[in-house]
Amino acid sequence: MDRHLKSWLFGASVDALTIRLGSPSEAAVAAHRAVVENWVHAWQDSRLDVRWEERRWPSLGRQLLPVVVTIEGADAIVAAAGETRRWQSLQQRRAQLQALDDGPQWSAVLVETFRYWNSLADNDFDRLLATVRWLRQNPDSGLLIRQLPIPGVDTKWLGTHRTAVTALAVPLGVPEHLGLRERELLRAVVIADPALRRGLPRIFAAPDGELAGLDFAASQVLVVENLQTLEALPDVPGTIAVFGWGDHATAVAGFPWVRNAPRVVYWGDLDTDGFDILARFRAQCPCESLLMDQASLERWRDLAVPHAAGGSVDVAWLTETERAALDVLQRNGLRLEQERIPIGAAVELLMAAGSVRPR
């Protein structure tokens, strides 16, 4: 029915629908006479184009039964199918959406996006319509999602229905990003040396733009991939630790105070993703790795867990011992998560760095 409703909604011709009713046999009528009489009366009262045929049965005599019904027009067909309410709702939705634009291509957009707005609950369609209207009037608002002055539309709702909103809004001249400002990531930082804090908290979080503008003079910067590991890090002289945040770690490589640090250390999971991030970080900023070599893997291999190998790594940016560790992990389908390794082992290596050599 959906396919027919869509085509009829956008002006396709409606062929007459002819349905054979399957008249009951003499035995069936005799066994269920009241039911059959009600069925016959219903067709007599239907106001549809019904063809009747006479049946002459020895036990029941002459009977006039409906055998074929012909229904013409979309309204009549959907009424016969019990879909009148839905059909009227679709007509109203199409009219409301059509009113958004009178351009020659807009009807084609509504056809292409039918699957998005056809199945929505009434309240969600109302929000969709209100959102597209507002975005068209404010295509470069620069607002956060939670700031949108649209009843019922919040971050969760737009996250769920963003595809539908974008499909309708972009053809109306709204940018792909809907003219909205995304919430900035707040990256966690641990100033692990009291002498470097200068009034700042030991642990804080800020957007990358603000972090890049700070004037730290750390002798070593540690980029850590696990937030709990970062927060558990004790004080280490001359050290500032930064949350890597997965694929966002490469942004840290661009911070001036990171690039100017005599020593930069990356510590991530021992798996394909971890080594991929290390390689991409190192491609932008020279760094050492921490506990991501073959010796570390063998030392704590009993803490590794099964993990299907996937993805690829530009091994040209890895050291020989890092490549050896990655090879073992991939051949054996393993991963060793950073937080499984005792943090004391990392602190010992950081402290043992002693006088930091320039890069």
UniProtKB/TrEMBL annotation:
Chain ranges of the Wadjet protein JetD C-terminal domain: 179-348
Pfam families: DUF3322 (PF11795), JetD_C (PF09983)
All residue ranges annotated as the DUF3322 domain in the record: 5-168
Source taxon at top rank: Bacteria
Name of the protein: DUF3322 and DUF2220 domain-containing protein
Biological source species: Mycolicibacterium mucogenicum
